[in-house]
Design goal:
Number of strands: 34
Number of helices: 3
CATH topology: Pectate Lyase C-like
Helix content: under 10%
Distance between the termini: 25 Å
CATH class: Mainly Beta
Structural class: mainly beta
Oligomer: single chain
Shape: globular
Radius of gyration: 22 Å
Length: about 450
């Protein structure tokens, strides 16, 4: 099979049953020009599919060759933020690498370094507290097994890492852990602004191979910032796990050219919206591939442009959505823009509400599923709306293929979204095997059962 051919099916183990997950072709041409750190040719109709782990070709970030190792205090009590910040500040003008070294601090090979999220405070703006302020041209590398644990605090807005108006930054390895279970409310609201990583007005940023968990607000937030305002571009999350955060796994409120690859956004719960990934405001050219959205109190992915926002060209491929409220929840009004979304090769099963909720009078040019019964871009649906059916079924079956929109447990769309003038296309997708006269057996496609 040639490089431009779509790849073969892949299978995902679900409990004791193998749930068929068609592997999608890569995303179609982008709706508009965008930053292109991945080398994807947006003008090819069906480029080769994304490479499997570990063969992603991540963009190269610019930095110097200086490496400063850090040996933080190992007593499990002392604040380690100052010694790490000192190493960041000591790098030469062209930057370099700060390496946080693994040392056993107790337990079974634990390496836990305590971080004071109130160690520093922004002098202006939101005046947020933060533990570390990252510079441009820096790699912050945590050795395998290193955990940075936030100390308890009682302020409404505090971050582990602050990235404000910087470029060419990488954060890699280890884990950063919040203090949501030890937090004392400030008395000034919900305190939902305690973030693991606050990224504003920054470009050329890579966050990879890291766990971001148990923060009072978002695991990661990506927004515009600076004066004049700078929109984040060329942002890459690879092998990033945002798990158990209180408000969102990731909030993306402004951005152009954002890539989420081979990552997990799960178990978000505590305060609304509680999504795995929440895309709001004005955002364009987002590519989400081979990600898991599991058991979020809110939705797996929510698209909400607000009153005047513009969300364009969102591509969701080869992902698994299970246990969320909806897999994809979209609600747009009449004064915003919600244009172009592709959903190819995803598995959506056992979500509590409809797998897809697509509403609004300006929602245009969505492509959901493939163009034929055996197209690898077909999505798979099974056993959704469990909070009303109260049926959790194993083994799962999605062995019949149908074309078009089908109201029921899997989809809910407004009249406009279903209309031809919207440009939305509900293509071919796999569903549980029910002989309703609209299905074709998928055996000829090579998907024989689960």
């Amino acid at each position: 099979m040639s490089k431009l051919d779509v790849s073969r099916r892949k299978f995902l183990q679900v409990g004791s049953a193998a749930f068929t997950l068609p592997l999608a072709a890569a995303v179609p041409a982008a709706a508009q020009s965008s930053p292109n750190p991945m080398g994807v040719d947006f003008h090819i109709e069906l480029p080769s599919p994304p490479a499997h782990i570990p063969n992603r070709k991540l963009p190269v970030r610019q930095r110097g060759t200086t490496v400063i190792p850090v040996d933080p205090p190992t007593d499990g009590v002392s604040d380690c933020s100052a010694v790490i910040q000192a190493a960041i500040d000591a790098l030469p003008e062209d930057g370099g690498t700060v390496l946080i070294k693994y040392h056993r601090t107790g337990g079974i090979n634990e390496s836990v370094y305590m971080m004071n999220l109130m160690a520093n405070q922004q002098p202006t703006g939101k005046k947020a507290y933060y533990a570390l302020n990252l510079r441009s041209n820096v790699l912050l590398q945590l050795e395998p097994g290193v955990q940075l644990q936030a100390m308890a605090n009682n302020v409404p807005r505090a971050y582990m890492f602050l990235l404000q108006n910087v470029h060419d930054v990488e954060i890699a390895g280890g884990a950063i852990l919040g203090e949501r279970f030890n937090h004392t409310n400030s008395g000034k609201g919900t305190d939902e602004w305690g973030f693991g990583i606050s990224l504003s007005g920054s470009t050329a940023i890579t966050i990879r191979n890291i766990l971001v968990s148990n923060f009072e607000g978002d695991g990661i937030t990506i927004a515009q910032g600076g004066s004049p305002l700078v929109v984040p571009t060329d942002i890459v999350l690879w092998k990033t796990r945002c798990i158990g955060n209180r408000r969102q796994g990731v909030s993306l409120t402004e951005g152009n050219g954002v890539y989420l690859w081979d990552s997990e956004f799960s178990w978000t719960h505590g305060t609304a919206p509680a999504d795995g990934l929440d895309i709001e405001g004005t955002v364009s050219n987002v590519f989400i591939d081979r990600c898991l959205f599991d058991t979020n109190q809110g939705n797996g992915v929510e698209l909400n442009p607000g009153k005047t926002g513009q969300i364009r060209n969102i591509n969701i491929t080869n992902c698994v959505f299970t246990g969320n409220y909806s897999a994809l929840y979209l609600s747009s009004g009449s004064t915003n823009v919600m244009d172009t979304c592709t959903m190819y090769g995803n598995a959506m099963y056992q979500n509590r509400w409809k797998a897809l909720h697509i509403n609004g009078s300006v929602t245009r040019n969505f492509k959901i599923g493939g163009i034929g019964p055996c197209d690898p871009r077909n999505n798979s649906f099974a056993n959704n709306q469990t909070q009303y059916t109260h049926q959790v079924m194993y083994p799962l079956t999605a062995t019949q293929v149908k074309q078009g929109y089908f109201a029921g447990t899997d989809m809910e769309a407004s009249t406009y979204v279903q209309s031809p003038e919207s440009g939305n296309v509900f293509g071919w997708n796999f569903y549980p095997a029910v002989d309703d006269g609209t299905s074709q057996l998928s055996g000829p496609c090579g998907i024989l059962g689960l």
